[in-house]
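Following up on my earlier thread - several people asked me to post the actual chain instead of describing it. Fair enough. Here it is, all 277 residues.
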Amino acid sequence: MSLSLIFASCSKGENGEKGAQGEQGIQGEQGDPGKHGDPGKSGEDGIACWDLNGNGSADIDGSVTDEDVNDDGVVDALDCHGDDGDDGTDGEDGIACWDLNGDGIGTIAHGQKNNEDLNFDNVVDVLDCQGQEGNANVTRVDVPIPGDFSGFRFSTQMPDNVLPLSDYAYQVYIKNDDFPDRWIAIPGPIDGSIYTRLSFQDQDAPIITVTFYNSDNNSFHVVAEGDYEVLRYFAIKVNPDQASGKGGQQALMDQLKAAGVNPDNYNEVAAYFGYKD
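Reply from S.P.:
Thanks for posting it. Predicted structure:
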């Protein structure tokens, strides 16, 4: 028997076309959870606020590193308070209640708009900050007459709380040194030889003026120093419908008459408006 061997050579052929993608396989089962990791190491303790040298010990030794700052024998959070700060700069002085124009000077100028002696006691102080006595519709105003006043006409500035003139009616009285126990109605007779007239001037600084006359010849009567002590008047808020012309004043007279009050009798008028001396 004979064996024949045949050797043949061949070259590599070209790649074939890519085949279609196969279907996705079935998802496998979830694996078991992993083990928890070991806990981390604890952080180092912080430095207490009182531990000035950071050694963790409360040092009370009287040295510059003594940590009992407040000297109470205990080192704790109370030793963490800082030293008191320096005092702040003093603030500027405020404006006094009587200083209406803010110039820091007490101005005594009776009858003028810049007058700050509102109670006419010749001193500018906190007493000039007080409002006038009164009730909802009536205000009483006292004007001391200077002891050295001499002349036939006395004028004084009116406070803002009884202005404007068109909103008020006024009932005015004066106290004479010869009759210290009674108030004399203005205008009208003082006695058999003297009488008064009353006027108001509505200007930048409204004023009320009392003028004295001799009854026998209607000439001006010159008042001697010290003859009169106080001018007092009631300012009565009037109904706006009555405020024009003399309507407000006449309405006041009608009101007093209807109540049986004599306008010339100060005590009756004061009681009617709820004022007591």
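The CA atoms of residues 256 and 263 lie 7 Å apart. That should answer part of your original question.
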